[in-house]
Amino acid sequence: MKQLACKKRSDMSFEVGDLVYLKLQPYRKDSLRKMRNQKLSPRFYGPYPIEAKIGQKHVGLAIHSPTLPLVRTGGSVLIESAWILDRRMVKKGNHAVTEVLVEWADTFPEDSTWEAWT
């Protein structure tokens, strides 16, 4: 069985400076931009130049920093807010809390969420 599977595979060798595509599974990655139907989002990103070879099969890519999302120290992705659409008062326990409807940058309008106003 293994011999049949290995017939279709080929060992690729890359050098520093070669351009390669980065394969991602967007429906499994939370760090990528949210789309309406993630199954139809692109699976390959790039091309990116190889910056360093790490071992025989691993390479380090020179990925542009503007394409990477900002990350907080806790590990969650920092998303920029674009507009505040509405505001409301809700009761949380014995206190009245102000919430605002936030439309996030680079997302669809229906992805707007109610967030606590602090």
UniProtKB/TrEMBL annotation:
Keyword Chloroplast among record annotations: no
Domain Chromo: 84-117
Domain Tf2-1-like SH3-like: 17-58
Family matches, as InterPro entries: Chromo-like_dom_sf, Chromo_domain, SH3_Tf2-1
The organism's place on the tree of life at top rank: Eukaryota
Pfam families on file: Chromo (PF00385), SH3_Tf2-1 (PF24626)
Record GO terms (molecular function): RNA-directed DNA polymerase activity
Protein keywords: Nucleotidyltransferase, RNA-directed DNA polymerase, Transferase
Keyword Phosphoprotein: no
Name of the featured protein: Reverse transcriptase
